[in-house]
Structure formats: structure tokens, C-alpha cells
Amino acid sequence: MRSIFSLLLLCLSLLQADVQVQGSIENTSQYYIEIPSDKNNLNNTLRANIEAEYTKDDLTLKGSLSAQEDFYDLFNDPTKETKRSFVRLNELYGTYEFENDQLLVGKSIRFWGALEVRNVVDTFNPQDLRSDVFETDKLGVWNVAYSHYTEMGEFNAIVKFYEQDREMAAYPYAYYFFPETIATLDLNYKSKLVSEESRYRPSVYLKYAASTETEYALDYAFVYENGYDSQRYYSIDLTEDFTHFTTQEHAYLVNKFSMFNTLVVGATLFKMEALYTDVISNDINISDYYHLGFGLEHTLSGVYKEADLGVICEYYYYNTLDQDKYSDLELFETMQDDLFVGLRYTFNEGNDASVVGGIIADLEYDEEVYYMEYESRFAEVLKINFDYRYINPSKNYQTAFNLLGKHERVSLKIGYYF
């Protein structure tokens, strides 16, 4: 709790300076109706976020911080502790604008992709392993980026400098997917990343994105990367004294080719994401692979008063090219042959209220995820988010959801935004 109060004091001090400040305080309460008996069946998480921005002429400086406190981490009880509490620097960077160019230096977060359920090409920032697996919570990365703007689009050359360790929540948390023990010995997660070369080996990205001004609005983007892959794999090793097992992440080098596009035809939005990864390191475990995602969303306007109804359908396919190396199961890939069918109901009453939900069906491993999420805003500064999720995992294959176990939850998030 101290970290959250410190963040609020920082916010108050910045408000006294010539700096634009915004942020939020959010409380998330989750109850698990069905969950493995040795995991916490509820959790309450308090989080504060703050963003500060300073602009003078063509120079902009921006920083953002997050502080999170999980209820169970307040007590000295290792059987309940989740290790989900932290203070984290999300972004700290500066940009300088030229006539048709921009230079960015620092720690930043980027968003790539177009699909609803999963952005398969969103590979620049790693996800925080202490967060809810159904929410996007990215870690900022240190990089320098040069951007050149044209009438129709932009070109980016980006160099990422560093591959970072990732902390993971402890076993009692619902979304810790490793077993607690193997053959009666404890299994402990080590956060130190094992990298093919130095973790300071740069990863280089070249990106081009543009739009067309035709009858049908087309947005498209292409990305090439040479560096460390966003996909990671885990090793499990027995310690030298034979007292327990350890598991940790491994990073390897690739050439990656990605693209994501959207096309608007009348009331229908077509979406596509695709990537191909050529593994160039000497690692014998990982195969070249590709990942595809196709989707469409058709909007029916004015179905009830001002409300709109969107019908969404998406399909994802992941495949490795060498069957003798790690498979999608060993890499914990959850969207390898999956179909999503859902609805989005937007009230259009001025409070950003919407309901979205549907079913994600794994066509290969016979498992389903059902979800419904409602979000709304009150009095400009209060937001409420309610969601329900039910996971019916595969009974015959050791998928990531099978490792989590059968799962049903309800969640309520209330946030104050300033």
C-alpha cells in the first residue's frame, strides 16, 4: 500500500509544475466459482497509474508509472501470497519533431494489430506475467526510433536495446500455470532470462504503415524484425543438490516478417494479421513457425434506439514447420486452431457503455472459453468493468488451460480516472 500512496504524492507534486498529468486508481475484485482447491478462490487488487507529459516547442517528454498491491501480499503467509505487488516504470521517453520526421529515445510501449481476441503481431513489448492473462499489461522496453511521415503513411526504424527478466506470480494465484511440484519436489520459477547471445544484443525493426483513399478504406502495415523473438520457451532443470526443480525463460534469435491490415466495406470491417518466423539461432528446440488471424465485424446500426450491434467472427491458426521440435503445447500457445464468434452491443448513450462476449472454441484440442464483459463510464471520471469467464479445458491434451484447470470466475473493476 505504501507504494500506491507514494505514487499519489508524486502525482500531486507534478500537478504543481508545468506538466500535464493524468492517471487512475482501480480496484479489481475477482471471485473464482470453480478453481483448483489449492489456489486462492478470490483476490482483490488495488492499482494506481500515473502519466506525466511535458511539451516545449518540438520536444515532448513523457513518463508513466504503475503501482499494484494484491490483498494476499499484505500478509506473511506463503501459502496464500501471490507476489503480484510491484512498483513499475512503464514508460520514460522523449520525442523531437522535425518537419516530416520524429526521433524517439527511451522506454516506451507500442500497440500493433487489428483483431479482437488476440493480436498475433503485437510482438514488440512483453506481457507482465503477474497480470491477469485476459488483460493487456505490457512492459515498456528501451529503444530508439526514427519515423518518417509521408502523405499516405509512415516508415519506422526501431532499435530495441535490451531483453529484460520477467517476474511471475506465485503458485496460489489463479493464473500461475506451472505445477507446484514435480515428483514430490518443489518447482520454482527463476526470473533470470536465458538468452542465446547477450541480452544487450539489439533487436532491429523496420515498419511501414499506410492507408488508401479509395472507395474502400484500407489500412495496412508491414514489419520486419531481426533480433530476439517475442515467443519464449521454458526449461525445467533439477538443482545440483537434488532438492527441487527450477524453470526459466529462454530467448532466441529470429528473422520475423509480420503484417496486419483492415478493410472497411460498407458496414463490415475485415481484419487480418499474419507473421512468419525464421529461427536463426543455434537453438535446437525451436522450429520456424507461422501464425495467422482472420476476422470480420459487421455492424447493424440502430437495432434499438441509438444502439449498434456488432457481429464478430475470427479464426486463428498457428503451426510449427519442424515436428521434431517444440510443439504449440510445449510453447503454451492457446490460439493454434481457434474460432471466436461473438457480439458487441454499443449503447451510444454518451457514457461509452458496451457489452461484448462470445465463445472461443479450440477446434483441435476440444476446449472452450466463454466470456462476457460490460464496461461503462459515470460522471466522466468513474469507470466500471464487469466480466464473466468460463474455461472448459481439454480433457485429453496438456494445453495451457488444462494446466490451469477448470475455471469459472466473475470480476468487478471500479476505477477513478483523473
- What amount of the residues lies in strands? over 45%
| Poorly predicted segments | none
Radius of gyration, in Å, reads: 22 Å
Q: Helicity level, as a percent range?
A: under 10%
Instruction: Report how far the terminal alpha carbons are from each other.
Output: 20 Å
| Biggest β-sheet description | 18 strands, antiparallel, barrel
Mean pLDDT: 93
Which of globular, elongated, flat, extended, rod-shaped describes the shape? globular
Structural class: mainly beta
Sketch the topology as an H/E string, one letter per element.
HEEEEEEEEEEEEEEEEEEEEEHE
Strands, count: 22
Number of helices: 2
Oligomerization status of the protein chains: single chain
Explain what this protein looks like in three dimensions.
- With 418 residues, this protein is mainly beta.
- Helix content is 5%, strand content 56%.
- The protein has two helices and 22 strands.
- It has helices at residues 2-15, 400-404, and strands spanning 20-34, 42-56, 59-70, 86-97, 101-108, 141-149, 153-160, 181-182, 185-195, 203-211, 217-228, 233-238, 245-251, 253-265, 268-279, 289-304, 307-320, 337-346, 354-362, 367-378, 382-392, 407-417.
- It has an 18-stranded antiparallel β-barrel. A four-stranded mixed beta sheet has the order 8-9-13-12, with no helix packed on it.
- Strand 20 (367-378) and strand 21 form a beta hairpin.
- The longest helix has 14 residues, at 2-15.
- The protein is globular, with a radius of gyration of 22 Å.
- It starts with a helix and ends with a strand.
